[in-house]
Design a protein that fits this description.
With 465 residues, the protein is α+β, with helices and mostly antiparallel strands. The chain is built from twelve helices and 25 strands. Strands 16-17-18-19-20 form a five-stranded mixed β-sheet, with helices on both faces. Strands 21-22-23-24-25 form a five-stranded mixed β-sheet. The two termini are 56 Å apart. Residues 461-465 have low confidence and may be disordered. The structure holds zinc ion (3 copies).
Length: 465
């Protein structure tokens, strides 16, 4: 699909969702359809109602009546959620709008309703034409006009077959004139003067099932999950990339821990069958340009060939609907309410306590094996498993007489890179040199320049691991 088409479709989808959510009843109906309570919504004739038909499932589900039910169905059809198909055509009285019309047959010559239907005989001698009944007299055929007896079919009389005859004007005809009698106001309307009303059945547009499922059900829970983990959540976030291009991130979740600001770019890719590699590539390029390294893709229903490998390679966490459900129902919940407090510390142990309060597991002098095979020593490693993302922060602490030089910062950055840790914090006592600071900034290292750290109290009992 061309990019412009995809964007146009996405915008249309967006509008549809917004308007559905605005209309709680429509949303409830869609949710019920999605839960497969019913597939087709068919009208049922009911001439006791004003419209002559009802949608019982809609009326029962939403507790609405008549026109309101039709209006909801129509609005969902307009939004492309439901497909409507012709079901039947009803006739409506042009005078009183009643749907209670009965057909009425009339003489095509004089319009009289006084017509009869039967075998039509013609008396050859006098030319009289009439219904068989008119000729019957005591078991014989007698012409009502000339009173002669009819004896032999095909000789002195003919049969014209079964036809109709007007009792008022005598016209014999095969097709009567159709009119419609209104049972409410009794007026009789010509066939071409009667209003015609089409009625429809509705069913879910199956190509929309996946996004509806997500948008109306899982998405809200997912956003709530993120908020519970302390994130601020922005949908359709506009992010300016390093290239200067502006990107739209489906869901951008950010949390400022004081020490590090975590950003997670969450993309939502929904296809009818499989999400292709091109979509994963687009997302990866977008997040890279935006400088966001926590990447999550919600994939509905599943990834296509080749896309999975690429996602793993690019460290994109993929959540399919089943993963999402598991995460939302059984994933790690925040142990306790995360308390936002000003980030400050006077000593290393205070810093560690602060991190623990933010929900991190904290390890001093952690040994981490890098991709190169080398084992690195990280002054403080803080880890927080949130189910979708495991955040790891490498904290380097440098205490010296003089400002930290570029080489030290470079080593730290190199170590974190090899260990695959993207969140980097450097605490420098008493500070950094100018070029070291510049390098740190460029590498996305959060720097705290501290005049001094309080000396550590010797820990009781437990030896340091
Ligand atoms: Zn006759
Ligand atoms: Zn007539
Ligand atoms: Zn009427």
């Amino acid at each position: 699909m061309a990019k412009a088409d995809k964007e146009a479709e996405a915008a249309e989808t967006e509008r549809a969702i917004i308007s559905i959510q605005e209309d709680a009843l429509a949303m409830k109906l869609v949710a019920t359809i999605l839960a497969a309570k019913f597939v087709d919504i068919k009208p049922q004739f009911d001439f006791t109602t004003e419209s002559g038909f009802v949608y019982p499932v809609v009326e029962q589900t939403l507790n609405v009546k008549g026109k309101k039910a039709v209006a909801i169905l129509e609005s969902l059809a307009d939004r492309g959620v439901l497909k409507k198909s012709f079901y039947d055509r009803l006739l409506r009285c042009p005078r009183c709008q009643s749907m209670n019309l009965r057909p009425s047959t009339n003489c095509p010559k004089c319009s009289s309703r006084n017509i009869t239907r039967g075998r039509i005989l013609e008396h050859s001698a006098c030319g009289y034409v009439g219904v068989e009944d008119e000729f019957t007299s005591a078991g014989r055929y007698v012409c009502p006009r000339c009173k002669l007896e009819l004896r032999t079919l095909g000789a002195d009389y003919q049969s014209r077959g079964v036809l109709r005859k007007c009792r008022d004007c005598g016209e014999v005809f095969s097709v009567p004139l159709m009119k419609w009698r209104c049972l409410k106001c009794s007026s009789l309307a010509d066939e071409d003067k009667v209003d015609e009303v089409s009625i429809y059945s509705y069913n879910l547009d199956e190509t929309k099932r996946n996004w509806l499922d997500f948008e109306l059900q899982s998405k809200g829970q997912f956003l709530e999950f993120l908020r519970q983990h302390g994130y601020e959540v922005t949908e359709n976030a506009r992010v300016k990339g390093r290239s200067g291009a502006e990107h739209c991130i489906d869901i951008l979740a950010t949390r400022d821990d004081g020490i590090v600001t975590h950003s997670i770019a969450i993309g939502v890719e929904i296809a009818r069958e499989k999400v292709g590699l091109d979509r994963i590539l687009d997302f990866d390029v977008k997040t890279y340009d935006s400088g966001i390294h926590n990447k999550v893709l919600i994939i509905i229903p599943t990834l296509g060939e080749g896309a999975e490998k690429f996602a793993v390679y690019q460290r994109i966490k993929v959540l399919e609907l089943k993963d999402l459900e598991m995460l939302l129902t059984g994933g790690p919940q925040p142990d306790r309410e995360i308390v936002k407090e000003p980030f400050e510390f006077k000593s290393k142990s205070q810093l560690m306590q602060y991190l623990e309060k933010q929900g991190y597991r904290v390890k001093k002098n952690a040994k981490v094996k890098g991709r190169s095979g080398a084992v690195h020593n990280i002054d403080i490693l803080a880890t927080r498993d949130e189910g979708i993302i495991i955040h790891r922060i490498a904290i380097g602490i440098g205490v010296a007489e003089k400002p930290m030089v570029l080489d030290r910062v470079f080593d730290f950055d190199d170590k974190a890179y090899d260990a695959g840790i993207m969140d980097k914090v450097l605490i420098a006592v008493p500070g950094l040199t100018g070029e070291a600071r510049q390098f740190a900034e460029r590498q996305g290292i959060r720097v705290f320049e501290v005049e001094q750290l309080e000396p550590e109290q010797p820990e009781e009992g437990s030896p340091e691991s």
